[in-house]
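Ticket #4471: structure output looks truncated?

Reporter: J.K.
Steps to reproduce: submitted the chain below (612 residues) through the standard prediction queue, then opened the result file.
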Amino acid sequence: MIFKFFESRIEPFPQDEPSQPPQTVLAFCWYFSKTAWPYLVGVAVLVAIIALLEVMLYGFMGNIVDWLSNADRATFLVKEKSTLIWMGIVTLVALPLTTALHSFVLHQSVFGNYPMIIRWLSHRYLLNQSYSFYQDEFAGRIATKVMQASQGVREVVLKVLDVLVYVIVYFAGALALVATLDLWLVVPFVVWLLAYILVLWFFLPTMSKMAKETADTRSFMTGRIVDSYTNMLTVKLFSHAGRETSYAKESMETFLGAVRKLMRNITKLHIALNLINSALFFAVGYVSISSWLDGASTVGAVAVGAGFVLRLKGMSHWIMWEMSGLFENIGMVQDSIATLSNPIAVKDKPNAGELSVPKGEISFDHIAFHYGKDSGVIDDLSLQISAGEKVGIVGRSGAGKTTLMNVLLRLYNLNGGAVRIDGQDIADVRQDSLRSQIGVVTQDTSLLHRSVADNIAYGIDGGNDDASRELVIAAAKRAKAHEFILDLEDPKGRKGYDAHVGERGVKLSGGQRQRIAIARVFLKDAPILVMDEATSALDSEVEAVIQENLNELMDGKTVIAIAHRLSTISALDRLIVLDEGNIIEEGNHTTLVKQGGLYADLWNRQSGGFIG
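Returned output as attached by the reporter:
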């Protein structure tokens, strides 16, 4: 089928690994156009041919006016037969075929596939962005940038190759045709063109800045709205719908102000174009009639000149909107570049290899990490964890416990020192390889808005298919989640393991989310296990049951357990007490309680010290 033929000309999902997009508009657009350029050039060539054919039709119409004014009816067909045949071929064959081919290439090959390439490459690049990137941006704002970049790049490129090429070829062809009819008739068109360029030169750069401001305020507004929706439970719990309304209204008013500034400029541009179009109509009418009175031009020349004036009057407004759209889309592209061309902070080295974990020994060797500051958090910390050892990390809030987990997973680059696993510096191996060897259960469990089975199957390669469903159910049973999963049903009637859990797992309780997260780690079965308050969301009865399964999961693994609730880690091999990024105590539970230090103080508070 012809539609499918043209739709399959461009691959919408190129497999090449995306690199950092350039930070200038032209280079940014070319980066996303490399795989589609033959068809983009094809669009420009076809639209140039269409413009020339349309100019030829105007020339034919001028000839017809002259023929009908002077020709002898008896000999007209004989004398002009060949010209009429060519005119018929152009009108009935060449122009329809060219416009049809242009439409197929533009709408089937380019219009859908081209922006999809941009979305696909942008999304894949952003998935490789460092964790800190997502901590500094609204998720909704990032998504908006991806969407507006795909629209903006497509519109910028197509307006240049499709609209501008058509306008330039059409106007040049029209001037050439008018010059063959009456040289003086060219003068008003040239003057109009200069005036038109001046008007656009005066207005459009300002519109470009305003369009960039509009795009930025739009994405900012979207980000605020999405932030409210994402945290709806907090909004409800604190009864702050009114505050969120004001929060959103502030960004909406800013966006509306930017839109109004842009619209004022468009109105001024519209008025200026109407003035020069009216002047062109008057000037062409005056010159053509004067030339006809002097016998210097024919009635056909007058008809062609008047026809071009009317055509340009309509085209000038169309061009204005297209140029306005071009600069608006350039502004959108510029606004997107700042996000999509952001360099990736945590990168794999070019020769990064695969991490091999035959034992599971972990070494923190004089590490320093400051979250982008000059100092603080961890300045010089060394810690050796033997293969198969179960270590608990204890300390007050802000002591650096979760930071140890973050640098072990290489979510951030160290400021100094090294982390090694079985002697291999984790900075020298692929990040995916590193994280595939570490199972993690965090306190703030976030689930994907997909089925329960998909969320648990995230722990294995290959996803949730028929072959892995049995493994998923087995992992859920080990995490004591199977029973409540069978009772789940979402608004679309999907039940059990096929039920969707809502954004970030909002449809489930904290304990249910935690048990699914634990099931996911059971399924992953990595040689190193990190637990950051892994059972904090569970009630005591469920925690006691799961603790038995966690002990089974920990068997034969190197374990790092971070906890505020000391009873959950008191039986581990060794406890490390952190304070302000330094190790101040270490030993087993009994030894640390006897020492009477910070650990003993924390233990006494949790075992009755708060009372009285």
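Triage note (M.O.): checked the attachment and the full token line is present. The beta strands are 362-369, 378-385, 390-395, 416-421, 424-425, 438-441, 528-532, 558-562, 574-579, 582-587.
Status: closed, working as intended.
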